[in-house]
Design goal:
This is TEX30 protein. InterPro entries: AB_hydrolase_fold (IPR029058), KANL3/Tex30_Abhydrolase (IPR046879), NSL3/Tex30 (IPR026555). It is a single chain. By secondary structure, the chain is an alpha/beta fold. The longest helix is centred in the C-terminal third of the chain and has 23 residues. The model has no long low-confidence stretch (mean pLDDT 93).
Length: 224
């Protein structure tokens, strides 16, 4: 696969983004963004994008700084529109994905777009890497409102020791969700997906394989 840098118009400025493009013409894509810190070059995102592209899925990752969730959501929406209208890549559908705060923004975009009358099924699903269900030690306030209103398939990949996503609390939210959903727990991983005794690459390989096999299952479900 190869990479193409692009600038995506957003209001009166541009968002930096990179396409990871498969060798043969992709049918599906994924849009991927980072958490509250860092940018699109966060190692987990780079690794996932490369893995997906080498397995035939177009991956578009972008940077949007800022800790305001409404702002991040607006930026993500602009990227979805950009990809949808792109002449270079005519996709049948796209999955939205993010890490930590980026996955909150992705969930928010999906909820907003599904409430619009022009929901055309372009968005196929949501992937939440380290979804920040609550602030550390503040388990009384759950950020679950968007999750409960989404109907497309959702995959959560979370560490079983994530200080912002208590295992039982996420399992509780998931039982209330009406969407088809799956949680893959990375054993003993924290919010940053670090696991004592395992290399970063080893953990990333597990995440990448899980995300891809889930994507494949969900694409096949659409076309039976």
């Amino acid at each position: 696969h190869f990479q193409v840098k692009v600038k995506i118009p957003f209001g009166n400025k541009y968002l930096d983004a990179i396409f990871s493009v498969p060798e043969k013409k992709p049918i599906y894509g994924m849009i991927l963004t980072h958490g509250a810190g860092g940018d699109m070059n966060f190692p987990h995102l780079v690794s996932l994008a490369a893995y997906l592209a080498s397995h035939g899925v177009l991956c578009l990752r972008f940077t949007c700084k800022g800790l305001n969730i409404a702002y991040r959501t607006k930026a993500f929406k602009a990227v979805v529109e950009y990809l949808k209208l792109s002449d270079d890549y005519k996709l049948s559908g796209v999955f939205l994905a993010g890490r930590s705060m980026g996955s909150r923004a992705a969930a928010s975009v999906i909820r907003q777009l599904s409430q619009d009358d022009d929901d055309d099924g372009f968005i196929q699903g949501l992937v939440c890497l380290s979804y920040p269900l609550h602030r550390p030690k503040l388990q009384s306030k759950l950020r679950d409102e968007d999750l409960l209103l989404i109907s497309c398939p959702v995959l959560f990949v979370s560490g079983s020791a994530d200080e912002m996503c208590e295992k039982q609390l996420l399992e509780g939210v998931v039982t209330k969700m009406k969407a088809p959903k799956k949680i893959h727990w990375i054993d003993k991983a924290n919010h940053g997906m670090a696991v004592k005794g395992r290399t970063t690459n080893d953990v990333m390989e597990e995440i990448n394989a899980q995300v891809f096999s889930w994507l494949r299952e969900n694409v096949q479900l659409q076309h039976k």
